[in-house]
Write a structure and sequence with these properties.
With 180 residues, the chain is of the alpha/beta class. Helix content is 33%, strand content 16%. The chain contains five helices and six strands.
Length: 180
């Protein structure tokens, strides 16, 4: 599927996750189409995700999360289990999106991984002050970026346990597949 700039979501990849009763949904908030393609390719190649939805600006991210406008129908905006968030976004900054997520009771449990090119100390400090789950600086070079995304996928989509898995009963969380 090709990317184009619009406030609409794009279903990037749909697969099947072992041992989970429902797919893991990732909301990728990224305005750089090239970076979005790299994430898409890396996740598809590693087969570490079920559904990735892309929004290309901060306002669209908030509209998605609060189901406003074109994202009002629930099937257009499934609740994400993980958010990948760039900081340098048009309309509303990534830090403002993060702050809003973590101040909203119905959204604050969603892990937010900041995935950005910013190495600014102030951005890092502010992201953690707003309770980012992780802060990753996009490395230069495809091989390093690919490896970072592989490890990110393995941790967040393989090892991590999500609250929705509980359903009031003990769970056996999935474990990542090893390659090689």
């Amino acid at each position: 599927m090709g990317f184009h700039r619009s406030p609409m979501i794009h279903l990037i990849h749909k697969g099947q996750k072992d041992m989970l009763t429902q797919p893991i949904v990732i909301l990728h908030i990224e305005d750089n189409v090239d970076h979005a393609h790299l994430v898409k390719r890396t996740l598809q190649k590693r087969e570490v995700t079920n559904q990735v939805y892309l929004v290309e600006d901060g306002q669209a991210a908030l509209d998605y999360l609060f189901r406003r406008g074109p994202y009002a129908p629930e099937d257009r905006s499934p609740r994400p289990d993980l958010i990948l968030l760039d900081l340098r976004l048009p309309k509303v900054t990534g830090l403002e999106v993060l702050r809003t997520i973590k101040e909203t009771e119905s959204l604050r449990e969603i892990p937010v991984v900041v995935l950005t090119s910013s190495e600014a100390n102030n951005d890092i400090a502010q992201a953690y002050a707003y309770r980012a789950s992780s802060y990753l600086v996009k490395p230069v070079g495809f091989a390093k970026f690919n490896e970072m995304m592989r490890q990110l996928g393995q941790y967040w989509l393989g090892w991590n346990c999500y609250s929705w898995q509980l359903n009031g009963t003990p769970i056996a969380c999935s474990r990542p597949k090893t390659s090689g």
